[in-house]
Amino acid sequence: MRATILHAPGDVRLEEVPDPTLVRPTDAIVRVTASCVCGSDLWPYRGINPVDKPRRIGHEFVGIVEDVGDEVTSVRPGQFVIAPFRFSCGRCAHCRNGVQTSCVLGGDGWGGRDGDGEWTPGCQGDVMRVPYADATLVATPEVPDEELLPSMLALSDVMATGWHCAVSAGVQEGETVVVVGDGAVGLSAVLSAARMGAGRVVAMSRHEPRQDIARRFGATDVVAERGEEGAERILELTDGVGADRVLECVGTGESMTQAFDSARPGGTVGFVGVPHGVEVPVRRMFRHNVALAGGVAPVRHYLEQLRDDVLAGEIEPGLVFDLTLPLAEVAEAYRAMDERRAIKVMLTP
Fold first, then answer.
1. What is the C-alpha separation between 45 and 102, in angstroms, rounded?
2. Rounded to whole angstroms, how far apart are CA atoms 227 and 233?
3. Pairwise CA distance, residues 294 & 317, whole Å
4. Is the dihedral of CA 255, 261, 262, 267 positive or negative?
5. How far apart are the first and last CA of the chain?
6. SS3 140
7. What is the spatial distance between Cα 124 and Cα 127, in angstroms, rounded to a whole number?
8. Cα–Cα distance measured from residue 87 to residue 105, given in angstroms and rounded to the nearest whole number
9. CA–CA separation, 76 vs 57, rounded Å?
């Protein structure tokens, strides 16, 4: 089978690797129908989080179950399944509390090792072994139509991550919400805030194609300014008060500063951007009673709800995919994302 391997910054290759096999009776083998490149994949691709040796990459996929271990009961061969970007046992205290990303057996997710030391490679390839299939994979009632494939794939990470940001921030009906970041997660956060009934959703974006999607997702306002000018613009839109909730979806120091500069006293900043160079302004939080909540999204916790919303036609998060390429062109997919020529790239066999 083929798999994507990151050798060094800017050096992504599609290579032949051994086919996966069932290792434990709780495993499933899934043929990948679609995968994609994530903004967080760009951190190692750019060398910011460098790899010390070649490794497989990718953590978002959907596919068709090909085989299951003897103890798997919730999915069967032939079913279409969504895989959250980390696998989980479903039994430990953290899984039972809805924080599957902290599963004691889940390990590092795709591209790491599970709790028993078995390697679980990145998923930008042809076939995946999924540990703890019963607790990890979420099936659809039937194989979805092709036009639903992008939205199903978005649920494996970006839509659920945007949703988690809005949940963490505590978005309430009628509130004013500002979203910092116009990547796929930020746009999904716009959709999430609108879905939760926010009265005003402000998307901070300087790119017209992304602004267009933000509006389609429910943004009522778009602010292109950044830094102090961006904060002033938010104050103008809110009569000098600031936003009730701010959703930080980038992970840089600048984006976190922008988020706190946009929040009203007593407001909440939700954050899901992978932090790089972030310093939290504790004194400001204390002085103005601004809360901070969020972290890595427990996608599995939200999957059934979001799957049903997609199937009912109530949300279409797949609009974040503005470029589809065959897996053979995965290197170009990374370049397109790195150069911001694409919001998010879907890879198909």
1. 25
2. 10
3. 21
4. positive
5. 11
6. coil
7. 9
8. 9
9. 26
Instruction: Tell me whether strands 28-37 and 345-348 are parallel, antiparallel or unpaired.
Output: antiparallel
Task: State the amino acid at position 64 in one-letter form.
Answer: I
Look up residue 79 and give its two tokens: 């079913």
* pLDDT tens, position by position, 316-336: 999 999 999 999 999 999 999
For 192-219, give the DSSP string: HHHHTT-SEEEEE---HHHHHHHHHTT-
Cα 82 to Cα 98: distance, rounded to the nearest angstrom: 18
pLDDT tens-digit map of 82-140: 999 999 999 999 999 999 999 998 866 677 665 555 667 889 999 999 999 999 999 99
Alpha-carbon separation of residue 56 from 15, 46, 126, 283, 295 (angstroms): 10, 15, 12, 41, 24
Rg (CA), the chain: 20
The string of DSSP codes covering 94-128 is: HHHTT-GGG-TTTTT-TTEE-TTS-EE--SSBSEE
To the nearest 10°, the Cα dihedral for 203, 85, 102, 88?
140
**Distance set, CA 124 to CA 46, 133, 195, 274 (Å):** 18, 19, 30, 20
- Name which of 63, 43, 123, 45 is nearest 331 in CA terms: 45
Q: Token pair for residue 241?
A: 């008060």
pTM of the model: 0.96
Check residue 52 and report its DSSP letter.
Answer: S
9: exposed, middle or buried (Cβ count in 10 Å: 0-12, 13-18, 19+) = middle
Residue of 129, 117, 177, 127 lying closest to 25 (CA atoms): 129
Return the structure tokens found at 122: 């990145």
CB-based contact 113:119 (threshold 8 Å): yes
